[in-house]
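Possible regression after last week's pipeline update?

I re-ran a chain I had predicted before the update to compare outputs. Posting the input and the new output here so someone can diff against the archived version. Not blocking, just want to make sure nothing changed silently.
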Amino acid sequence: MIRGQYRLLDQPDESAVTMENILKPHREQTIRRMMAHKTVLCIQDGTDLNYNGATECQGLGVIGNNQTSAKTRGLHLHSTLVVSDEGLPLGLLRADCKAPKPRNPEDTRPAHEIPLEEKKTYTWVLGMRDCEAIAADMPHTRIIQVMDREADFFELFDAWRDSPKRTELLVRAHHDRRTDTELSLFDGISASEVRGQFLLHIDRQSARAKKSKQKARPARPERTSEMTLRYRQVVLLPPKHLPDKKPVSLWLIHLDEEHPPADAVPIEWFILTTMKVDSPEMAQRLLKYYCLRWRVEDWHRVMKTGCRIEDLRNESAERLKRAIAIYLVIAWRIMLMTLLGREAPDLPP
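New output (post-update):
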């Protein structure tokens, strides 16, 4: 069996044994499982895979620089993980693994002049369009695409507006954008009326040391805090470098911990969505859906810590991607079994 796997992975780089084709049967079964649910969440996220120790592997990209400015070699993985509205992992819909290339020093174009298709963020649009495409075959399943702050760029919302709009978006806002009022996006929602207050249990969080692309994070003790809820419809104006684009109408949910404990970082979220938010119950339901975005972070942890995919050693990036594809499915199965073991411990193995 192991020899068979090696023969599969060691096909020529130009063969049909690609990450996409290896994942195709799993994707088909994921879509089948999605059809059995009324609502599913398609969670997009990316992570860097560090293969700096794979000195003989050809075709790796640059994923960052360390403190001595030495380049770190590896791959960037961008995936769409599907979970039910209760958080049960249903499978992997899409995975795109690339070897990032440093920008050519002779390319002096400012960022706003670079076409979207050439930017790293374009993979979010491709993931969104993929969800829109499969939604055509499951009219009885509501698909909500959940994304973190990296997906908060105007072109994504504009691309969704130009799509058949068979899915919905739920994106954590990062930029305090211009709106059709005198106030910016964040100032406008903060000045709006309070729609409700409720208690929120906040889990403890361990401290994290600074990494190449991640800031250091202090430890956070467990606590229960009173949260203030606001929501309203907003109209986002296009950035100045996109004068030909039309404004986009969305809904904004604001969750704010107005009285945090001393020395604690207050919890504050701004969530943009294409869904109409017309009640506090609807707002809290969407906040619950966004909280399930952390399932993809758990899946990344299973990949790296449990399956140890960053310890893989292959002769080329293409062969490495084939091995990664197999472990992506294994990591999903491990996470699924772990969650089922917690929620339904009486199930037979």
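Follow-up from reviewer: compared with the archived run. The chain has a mean pLDDT of 92. Marking as no regression found.
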